[in-house]
Write a structure and sequence with these properties.
- It is globular and about 90 Å long.
- Helix 8 packs across helix 10.
- With 478 residues, it is mainly alpha-helical.
- 32% of the residues are buried.
- It folds into three domains: 154 residues, MgtE N-terminal fold; 101 residues, CBS-domain, CATH 3.10.580.10; 170 residues, Orthogonal Bundle (Tetracycline Repressor, domain 2).
Length: 478
């Protein structure tokens, strides 16, 4: 689904082997084209078969997530060559694993029949994850291939927004009645071919399907078979509603060390479950989205996307940055006479802007994280402002003193040193206030607090830092 930071060495080895085979194929193809006479077609055919057979064997031995990683690391032409060698029955799983940008390139080179076949291999909750990237005709084809019950599950899964617990929910779970014994449950489980992934507990429901409690598998295995389920179940489980925020569900999984948790509707009836793997995927995607947004990127970008597409993805915040740079240049322009009289100002002013920009980015990163975790409320926001201003004043006095001493030693002007220290304190205070205010205001208006945050805070601290430093220098030195 996205970039992976800690890749097992065998995956890297596999990527290297795939790359080597592709390179050999390209060399052999070039050699075959250089042949003259009837041997050319035979040589070309043999080389194609030799390398493609080895590639297919290698891909068949890899996990779907590893194939997704390999695909993301290959340029488009090689990626499509490898994709054509992937077994058809694994295409659906791999499409789920690759990033959105890479998935788009793969889907664009598949016909409708292939896409329907790939989607049919998946569970309904997985199809719902894939649905936004599929053409309308493919979705209709998938609906026709599903049973009536699966269609209802797919409609339900597709009805929830991406940032809700319902979007993380799957329907592959085991529920048991509350009026049976442990022995009945064990007999039922033995008739199953396999249990759903991440089954650490069974969901206990009444006759109407209302959730009554949870029966952990470890407790089930050590309990006397004649014991009623209600005697060993946990009666007040952690549970979610489909409309609940996905971030709240993720926080609960972290807080209570959950592996799975039930999802219930407004009447308390069991409708699905959320598992730790879905939560981990959500957290990773949100983290990547925040990193991209903070850097001013609209969306995840294919590493080997076309030049035009990459430019289209990046231009918006570059344009904003250009405007803010013009504003900063005009702030400097207001003090041209002061700079002309005291050339040292031109050499020192980037220090103030740079330190305040770094401080602002530290603050805004902490605030965005706290907002994501739900740690900031209307009640504690004022104390947070006061705390950050206190930190900025102390940092300003410490590092302003260092910079002021540095300026005095170089230019032998104690007044310039004091101006540097004062500008540093005021600039860091500005960075602290804006570092807290910008994400809070953005969240208040329903925007992503991380969206372009680093670009915005840098623009504010640059212009503000230049104005504060040059303004103080004009008043006290020039």
């Amino acid at each position: 689904m996205a970039e992976r930071q800690d890749i097992h060495p065998s995956v890297q080895d596999s990527l290297q082997r795939v790359t080597e085979l592709l390179h050999k194929h390209e060399l052999a193809e070039g050699h075959a084209h250089g042949e003259q006479g009837p041997r050319q077609e035979l040589v070309e055919t043999l080389m194609h078969k030799l390398h493609f057979v080895e590639l297919r064997k290698l891909l068949d031995a890899l996990h779907s997530a590893d194939i997704a990683y390999v695909l993301e690391m290959l340029p488009l032409e090689q990626r499509l060559m490898v994709w054509n060698l992937v077994a058809a029955e694994r295409e659906g799983e791999i499409l789920l694993e690759v990033s959105d940008a890479v998935r788009e390139t793969l889907i664009a080179h598949m016909d409708e029949r292939e896409l329907v076949a790939a989607a049919e291999q998946l569970d309904t909750d997985e199809i719902a994850d894939l649905a936004p990237d599929l053409p309308h005709g493919v979705i209709q084809g998938v609906f026709k291939a599903l049973s009536p019950g699966e269609r209802e599950q797919l409609r339900a899964a597709m009805s929830y927004p991406e940032d809700t617990a319902g979007a993380l929910m799957d329907f592959d779970m085991i529920s048991i009645r509350d009026d049976v014994t442990v022995e009945v449950v064990l007999r039922y489980l033995r008739r199953l071919d396999e249990m759903p992934d991440h089954t650490d507990q069974l969901f206990v429901v009444d006759r109407t399907g209302r959730l009554e409690g949870l029966l952990p598998v470890n407790r089930l295995l050590v309990t006397d078979p004649g014991t009623p389920v209600t005697a060993v179940m946990q009666p007040e489980p952690v549970k979610f509603h489909p409309e609940e925020k996905a971030q709240d569900a993720a926080n609960a999984f972290e807080r209570y060390d959950l592996v799975s948790a039930p999802v219930v509707d407004g009447e308390g009836k069991l409708v699905g479950r959320v598992t730790v793997n879905a939560v981990m995927d959500y957290i990773r995607e949100e983290t990547e989205s925040d990193v991209l947004s903070a850097g001013g990127l609209r969306e995840g970008e294919d590493l080997f996307a076309s030049v035009w597409k990459s430019v289209h993805n990046r231009w918006a915040w570059l344009a904003v940055n250009l405007v803010t740079a013009f504003i900063a240049s005009r702030v400097i322009g207001l003090f041209e006479e002061s700079i002309a009289r005291l050339v040292a100002l031109a050499a020192l002013m980037p220090i103030v802007a740079g330190i305040s920009g770094n401080s602002g980015n530290q603050t805004i990163t902490m605030i965005v994280r706290a907002l994501a975790l739900g740690q900031i409320t209307a009640a504690n926001a004022r104390k947070l402002f006061a705390k950050e201003i206190g930190v900025s004043v102390l940092n300003g006095l410490i590092w302003g003193g260092v910079v002021g001493l540095f300026a005095f030693l170089i230019y032998r002007n104690w007044q310039l040193g004091l101006v540097m220290m004062g500008a540093m304190v005021l600039s860091l205070m500005l960075a602290a206030v804006m570092g807290v205010a910008v994400p809070l205001v953005m969240q208040r208006f329903g925007r992503d607090p991380a969206l372009g945050s680093s670009v915005m805070i840098t623009a504010i601290t640059d212009s503000g830092g230049f104005f504060i430093f040059l303004g103080l220098a004009t008043v006290f030195l020039v």
